[in-house]
Amino acid sequence: MNKMIAYCGLDCEKCDAYLATLHNDDALREKTAKSWAELNNAPITAEMINCTGCRMDGVKTPFCESMCEIHQCALAKGLTTCGGCAKWESCKTVGEILADSPDAQERLKGMK
Length: 112
Fold this sequence. Notes:
Layout: H1 16-23, H2 26-40, H3 62-67, H4 69-77, H5 92-100, H6 102-109
Helix pairs in contact: 1-2, 5-6
């Protein structure tokens, strides 16, 4: 199974935080921090934009590491992804992600 697929089904390899970390791209960190801060109405700085992937060992953004409800739920249940949960298709928490990302929903359908 591709460990670069997040618990929610998003593809970490396409995430700006991952790409900024991979390429040590400070301009992308700044751009991502600004965008995410506005989107989440939260104080997100460029220094926080470092991530090696949701399900990979290594650094994570503070949101992904400790504030993401999906990440915390999957870890608590011992799931590889939300696709392994019997309730994922009706889950309000992951549903917010899936509503904006049909690709993530398709990925979860085949993942346990």
